[in-house]
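Sanity check

After download, print the first record. It should look like this:
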Amino acid sequence: RICSMLEDTAEAGRLTLRALAAWESGAEEEATGHVRTALRADARFVPALLCLLALVQARPRLRKRGDPTFEELALRLRDAPAVEAAVTATGEGQGQAFVREYAELQQQRPLGALMRGLWAYHVEHDFAAAVAAFASSAAAGDACAVFNLGRCYDRGEGVARDLVEGARLYLKASDLGHVSSTYNLGVCYEHGEGVEKDVPKALQLYQRAADGGDPSALYNMGVCHERGDGVPINMVDAARLYRLASDLGDLSATFNLAVCYDRGDGVPQDRSQAVELYRQVADTGAADALCALGLCYEQGRGVEKDFGMAVSLYRKAAESNDPAALYNLGVCYNLAQGVPQDLRRAAQLFEEAALTGHSHAAFALGACHLDGTGAALDPVCGGECAA
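Expected structure tokens:
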């Protein structure tokens, strides 16, 4: 029935069927190969997205550089226009029909319920239906479903939030070999959520997850080494862990590694390398990386000084209300760096940044009020802001 339904559908449909068949037979690497090819044929084909999402949840080591990250997959599935385009592209809604038909035929098997749950969670946003589907699949012993059910309890999606139950389910899925659950359980122990706080235990779990290829676990271990949380401060180890996580596609690790090169922490200072790493993250639209890259152009760190480029990057970051970008853009307007001087606009930007708690912006806004440059002359307000 499925094959006939997809006979005239894009190649993505046939490849996704092969991926699911390989997955059920335990050939996970073959499954990810098929689904990657399917997404090259149609990057928005919802069944392939759901399949890859579940696979990389279960086995982060199956990820390859260039694959969408877990977060990117989830965001792509939450992009309503993209989903609509995917499920109506052929005029028959094959994407939606595929998942529903597949789940219907597999009702007594864990994978069918898991696919129903992923569809309900990521596409329909029906969290109660997702919980029911995950619970059905989890009862049959599917580790990926146990993980997703634990996440619903952890976040209070479709059920009352219960951190203890979330941690219990992460432990159960971890014992079944689910790497992302091992990572999430580590987060629980690091922050004392649902379990007693135990950072050394968290680090042990992160190491297990890292051994399974989870880049987020490597990143979190790097942060612990940088902060001295559960281990002595060691920037050499922090930078090494950030590099390993970055090589597996973790953008937070790539950003932190850029900061290490920028400052010479744990690695020889190399601001050209820092700029390249900032750029990799900035290309995804991350505000902190856009702002950091802008600062490099403003100060001529690792690149030739270019105020115009700095302003352009600050503006992009400021669209996300990034406090540092708002402040830095205000400085540019205040000093006529890359833009014509506009003291009123500078004061407005300082105020926007100050409202987020940015201390330098509050001081700059106070100075504007103290001498009436770009803002109403108000010594009292100016003194309060500067304080």
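If your output differs, re-run the checksum step. Summary of this record's structure: Confidence is low (pLDDT under 50) at residues 1-9.
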